[in-house]
């Protein structure tokens, strides 16, 4: 049986394998300790963090669809100071690389949050630009290349000592332009896709299921679209001369799904909704990738990529 090296390095951050728990689906890691061997994961993205505590949205927060899950959590979290004091020490002790997911409503909030997180032991910052910019009428930062670049630049300056990965919104009219603008503004890596904007109606109550009307769709239904977007973005960045590592996500539920993203030139993958239905999904994917590499006589993860 040939020796394999499943490790990957993303912007200087070493991961023992390319499987990362996605933000918002794995808490702060310790929640799953009794269910799986968390130490085997390549990395853990924290639940979305904001400068100040947030209670989250009212009403329905989760709604199942035939091939996915809609969510409207509203970034419920204890705030960055509480995370640093109460959650980070335990998360750091689990073993995987720690990626802090940062959200905000203004550029100033983002920058201050990034500064505080930059002073900690986290390995990487993941900047969520799908949040509404309250100073621009509520349009998400990630829908416009100028707004995306502005927040990326401020966060880069506020947290200059940590690798910066920007999490892109699939709802952007021109995601390649947004991505290129983020790279120009200092992004070391990109992750995509975040959830797709969607809607559900309760036909008996005759009103939208969610108080905010729309919500984010994840799960198997979005996987083929997410895969296509990862592939196309890598090609677009290559043509722009701005290639950076891309972490792919969106409906990945098993080994075959993960391999598709890795073959589409994703440097690593994040697993989200699948963990809710099957907590051991990530462990099975790690084992499955290793078994595939042995069968195909591959020695390193980057050999999976379609050239």
Characterise this structure.
The chain has 307 residues and is α/β, with parallel strands linked by helices. Helices cover 32% and strands 20% of the residues. The strands form 4 sheets. An 8-stranded parallel β-barrel has the order 3-4-7-8-9-10-15-16, surrounded by 6 helices. It has a 4-stranded antiparallel sheet with strand order 5-6-14-11, with no helix packed on it. Helix 2 (107-118) runs parallel beside helix 3 (145-158), helix 3 (145-158) packs parallel to helix 4 (175-184) and helix 4 (175-184) crosses helix 5. The radius of gyration is 18 Å and the shape is globular.
Question: What are the key terms here?
Answer:
single chain; alpha/beta; TIM Barrel; eight-stranded parallel β-barrel; 8 helices; 16 strands; 32% helix
